[in-house]
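Posting for a labmate who doesn't have an account.
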Amino acid sequence: MKKKVIVTGGTGYIGSHTVVELQNSGFEVVIADNLSNSKIEVLDGIEVISGIRPLFEKIDLSVECECNEFFKKHTGIDAIIHFAASKAVGESVEKPLLYYRNNLNSLMNILEAMKENNIPNLVFSSSCTVYGQPDKLPVTESTPRKEAESPYGNTKSICEDIIRDTTKAHPELKGIALRYFNPIGAHPSSKIGELPLGVPNNLIPFLTQTVAGIRPELSVFGNDYNTTDGSCIRDYINVVDLAKAHVVAIERLLQDKNTSNYEYFNVGTGSGVSVLEIIESFERSTGEKVPHKIVGRRAGDIEQIYADTSYSNRELGWQSEKSLDETLLSAWNWQKTL
């Protein structure tokens, strides 16, 4: 019998790619999403790629009564992957209460539902923002978390603490937090990809929209950082590689291999790439020019961060596979289909 997984935020960018990988791996998927930052048409792309249209429920999990009704309706659940969250760093600085209300309430409602409905396993979509600006690079899982640079980052730290404390108090529950670095790219089929509503907050969709002529030019926020070329450095991971890490994490929980009720892993490539290097790679892989200008620094941005992934590679048996050029070409191919 197929194992059933709830994917919250499953029509979103990372969620939709993870649904594809789950279905390709033989899981039954139910998506819970309020479509605040995604479109229902994403289900069509998922169905074309995997041959299966997942069950979908439009629901706001931050509303307790809606969450409770959802979990009463869907029984026999083996695990939850929780993506649903507000996720723009800059917006969180301007609207902190929106971020705290949405991101914390949805997680707490889900954990309550897990207790009430005997759902034992949770994979949580966390972020490398929990490390703040680290003192040493690359960051390992033992790198101390720092005070967050943004309310968004702080919600990820608080959510991790909530999961840790809840699994400690309720040993029948298990959780894995995956600390993402910077997901980019699109499915190689070009049927799903990053689809921000309105002006993109992330680098790659803004870049591809600029090259497509939708935006006049790309702003590079700062060239006076203490990096090789003065622009910020991040660890950019292909979204399909990231999606596969979620499948591995679910399988780890279901096989009861983990020694602890709560674990966390870095999910990145292990390499740091600057914003200006991203532009170079994009131009090289696509043959397209990127109109861009240097502007001032952006609130909430950290200077540089990239992962040491040796622990997740060893423990999960997972590693990133796709190159930066291949990933950026997939992002451009996706943009062209739009």
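Reply:
Got it, the structure tokens are right above this. The mean pLDDT is 96.
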